[in-house]
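Incident log, structure service

09:12 report received: a user says their structure output differs between two submissions of the same chain.
09:20 pulled the input from the user's history:
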Amino acid sequence: MEISPDTERQSPADSVAGLLAAAAIFTSLIGLAYRPVRIVPFAVVVALVAAGMSSRHTRLAQAAVAISGACFVGGLILAVITSNPLF
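09:34 re-ran on a clean worker, output below:
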């Protein structure tokens, strides 16, 4: 019985990269509502690390980078409009 390319086993780095990308998305969305300058830059760094770690989860990592960047800008805009602290 042959193994098709779609059913290949994931390496541990692929699993960690997927987990990091998902965590970066979650953290970015939390930072959107609560102090974006403290939280979201770390989420961007985690998303970039996830993007560099794996070739299997590239779309998830790209989405994490894009969502993190959008949440940073959106969080700053919301904080300024509502007169909430940035830090």
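09:41 both user submissions now match this output. Likely a transient worker issue. Closing.
09:42 reviewer note: Helices lie at 12-33, 36-53, 58-81. The mean pLDDT is 89.
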